């Protein structure tokens, strides 16, 4: 085989790989999952949450996003909704798409702060998104309630998280929304039944054998997927469930490998007694 033929083959393989990685980065993969708890109020059995995080530079297609969605009760947005250099009209468009699905509650991520937190907050406010900045609210349904808390993103890595851990009574089913799962580091208890986070992108570029290329040690352990944590320090078995999403967008390069983008449809279920 001539050198030109080798080069042509290499170029074809490279183009195919780039195409595959671009498809992983720009798809609309919805993951449907159930969250089962005996602490959930009965009237919230079947309550559906759309969870999306780390949108970054992407522009949401309402048709693609909602093609398999129905009966969503609320939308939770886990930060990095935009990033520096992205037109704020794109953020406005994205949030307008989400608020047409259901009431939207959000926290900010590190890239939102870099983009200009005041401007981001203004867009959220004008589009009807509720920003949970170290804030707790209640979600009511048929005279019962669950509690939702959002954790404030620190200004930089040199600034620690505040001591906020949500304001919920012991008997409340409690959801905590936080951008960066490093919030759980060193905590012996999380005081939540469900913790939703993003930030890691699941590693974004995950090589065979070598694994994720750009994750610090903490995130090697807490990369993406489901984890169990102690809700209270006195518990024998962990009962808090944490979901770390791979996220919907990308950081630095618009490509993914063995780590497709995702968003989540979570259905809360009351555990049935035997």
Could you explain the architecture of this structure?
The protein is built from five helices and 14 strands. With 274 residues, it is of the alpha/beta class. The chain has one domain: Purple Acid Phosphatase, chain A, domain 2, CATH 3.60.21. The chain has a six-stranded mixed beta sheet with strand order 1-14-2-3-4-5, with helices on one face. Strands 6-7-8-9-13-12 form a six-stranded mixed beta sheet, with no helix packed on it. Strands 10-11 form a two-stranded antiparallel ribbon. It is globular.
Architecture blueprint of SSEs:
Layout: H1 3-26, E1 30-37, E2 48-52, H2 62-66, E3 74-77, H3 88-99, E4 104-106, H4 110-127, E5 130-131, E6 135-141, E7 144-150, E8 174-177, E9 194-197, E10 206-207, E11 211-212, H5 217-221, E12 225-229, E13 240-244, E14 263-270
Parallel strand pairs: 1-14, 2-3, 3-4, 4-5, 7-8, 8-9, 9-13
Antiparallel strand pairs: 2-14, 6-7, 10-11, 12-13
Helix pairs in contact: 3-4
Protein name: Metallophosphoesterase
Domain Calcineurin-like phosphoesterase: 48-202
GO cellular component, one term: membrane
Keywords:
Purple Acid Phosphatase, chain A, domain 2; Metallo-depent_PP-like; 6-stranded mixed β-sheet; 274 residues; Metallophosphoesterase; alpha/beta; Metallophosphoesterase_sf
Name the poorly predicted regions: 6-13
CATH class equals: Alpha Beta
Count the beta strands: 14
Shape, per Cα inertia axes? globular
Quick overview of this protein structure:
GO terms for molecular function: metal ion binding; UDP-2,3-diacylglucosamine hydrolase activity. The protein is of the alpha/beta class and 274 residues long. It contains five helices and 14 strands.
């Amino acid at each position: 085989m001539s050198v030109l033929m080798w080069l042509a083959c290499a170029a074809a393989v490279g183009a195919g790989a780039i195409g595959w990685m671009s498809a992983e980065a720009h798809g609309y993969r919805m993951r449907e999952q159930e969250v089962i708890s005996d602490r959930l109020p009965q009237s919230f059995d079947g309550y559906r949450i759309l969870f999306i995080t780390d949108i970054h530079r992407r522009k949401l297609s309402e048709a693609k996003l909602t093609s398999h969605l129905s009966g969503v009760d609320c939308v939770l947005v886990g930060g990095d909704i935009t990033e520096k250099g992205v037109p704020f009209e794109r953020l406005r468009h994205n949030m307008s798409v989400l608020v047409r699905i259901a009431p939207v509650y959000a926290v900010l991520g590190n890239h939102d702060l870099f983009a200009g937190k005041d401007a981001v907050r203004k867009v959220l406010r004008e589009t009807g998104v509720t920003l949970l900045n170290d804030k707790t609210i209640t979600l009511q349904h048929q005279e019962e309630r669950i509690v939702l808390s959002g954790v404030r993103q620190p200004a930089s890595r040199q600034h620690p998280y505040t001591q906020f851990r949500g304001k919920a009574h012991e008997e409340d089913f409690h959801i905590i929304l936080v951008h960066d799962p490093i919030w759980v580091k060193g905590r012996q208890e999380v005081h939540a039944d469900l913790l939703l986070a993003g930030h890691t992108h699941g590693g974004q570029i995950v090589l065979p054998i070598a694994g994720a290329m750009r994750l610090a040690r903490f995130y090697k352990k807490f990369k993406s997927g489901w984890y169990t944590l102690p809700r209270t320090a006195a518990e024998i078995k962990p009962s808090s469930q944490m979901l770390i999403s791979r996220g919907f967008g990308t950081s630095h390069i618009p490509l993914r490998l063995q780590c497709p983008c995702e968003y989540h449809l979570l259905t809360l279920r009351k555990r049935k007694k035997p």
